[in-house]
Design goal:
Blueprint lengths: L6 H29 L12 E4 L8 H10 L5 E5 L19 E5 L6 H15 L3 E7 H14 L3 E7 L5 H20 L5
């Protein structure tokens, strides 16, 4: 009587278990880094409020303008990395004594935005900034900025009016962007 091999079913079970563990791990990481990131609330005053692109998503730009108008900072920095950005917004009157700095990052990525902000922060002698961007992007944006900027970084995640399709697209995008951010060990 020939011996039956149980390797096939055991291997299949092991592969299924591994896939389940990976899917559960990905789901948990996505929830805590993208869907519901743990963000430290900013203090009443920081040196600058930074709105990362796309600024129009989720009301991020409106939050930044409101923060500077209420006195949270004297400088509003806006990344204009999105197509069709209305540059007239760079001249918005915030309040007396406040200024707006608009920039197009090179490269046009979150890392490029972090590099620009860190150079501007050094020149301006800032010690703290609040970063405002889509909630799905806030934790990674703050993580990258902390690699470039020695001061305190606070993040605010805007999510007003986001569609489910945007959430799904961003969950998959951020799933690939996080490993890339973690692989960076400097500000380049």
């Amino acid at each position: 009587m020939p011996r039956r091999s149980f390797r096939g079913p055991l291997l299949a079970k092991a592969v299924v278990r591994l896939l389940l563990i990976l899917i559960i791990g990905w789901s948990v990481a996505t929830y805590f880094l993208v869907v519901r990131p743990s963000l430290q609330s900013p203090p009443r005053h920081v040196d600058a409020v930074v709105v990362l692109g796309p600024a129009s998503v989720a009301g991020a730009l409106n939050l930044g303008i409101q923060d500077v108008r209420r006195g949270a900072a004297t400088t509003l920095v806006i990344s204009t990395a999105e197509a069709g950005f209305d540059n007239h917004l760079c001249n918005v009157l915030l309040r007396p004594g406040a200024r707006t700095v608009c920039f197009f990052p090179h490269p046009a990525t979150t890392a490029g935005e972090a590099q620009f902000v860190s150079v501007l922060a050094r020149r301006s002698k800032w010690s703290s900034v609040t970063v405002i961007t889509g909630r799905y992007h806030a934790a990674r944006a703050a993580f990258l900025l902390r690699r470039c900027f020695a001061g305190r970084v606070y993040a605010v995640g805007a999510d007003r009016g986001l569609r489910w399709s945007t959430w799904i697209r961003q969950i998959f995008y951020e799933s690939g962007a996080w490993p890339k951010a973690l692989a960076r060990h400097d500000c380049s």
